[in-house]
Amino acid sequence: MQLPDSVSAVVFDCDGLLVDSEPAWTVGEAAIFAENGFDFGPAQKQLVIGKSISGGCEAMAAYFGRPGGGPQLVDQLLGLVLAELRSGIDPLPGVVALLDALSGRIPLGVASNSNRELLDVSLIGSGLADRFDVTISADDVEHHKPHPQLYLEAFRRLGADPARGVALEDSPTGIASARASGAFVLVVPSAPGGEHDGDFIVSSLDDPTVLEWGRSVQPI
User: Fold this and answer.
1) CA 118, CA 175: separation in Å to the nearest integer?
2) Which of 36, 49, 71, 156 is 20 to 30 A off residue 107, Cα-Cα?
3) What share of the chain is helix, strand, coil (3-state, %, to 5)?
4) Rounded CA gap, 201 and 145, in Å?
């Protein structure tokens, strides 16, 4: 499948797609696993990647044998991650060039499973905060990814038809959310391996095909 020639809007995930925030999350998650006497590796990372902070903490609590104990971990994880993010965060390869290509022509949004504080710290710290017309966090909706509400709300606030829009994602949870919104799904996997339900899949946003699309795509 080819990238669409015209779009109503483009909505990006944040963590693992716009910014390299996953190392900060991994530091926090690994610390909590260690405190509870468990190792933290790729299998454990898959339990939490792409989830909201409440969903990730509930998954960790269940893994620790304390189902329902997620709320007790939220503040701890949030503090650890924010401390890491404030030490510096970079946009991922291709992000700035793609935003430069789209800006001023195509409505742009962010739909993130992170809460508002985390989303704002990530966007401000990476210098991307002023690049979007709309940013939607987990605090702005009732249902989080994989439910489509985050994407539907972003497209709604942009005045755009999601069925004519493009959503960019990196994780299975986010991909499911974007797919359910009806948008065309461009996937840049943040973790190797596995099947991804994307309409167009690339290894990085600096892929020449994506950057050329950004320069040529037209608004609807």
Assistant:
1) 20
2) 49
3) 45, 10, 40
4) 20
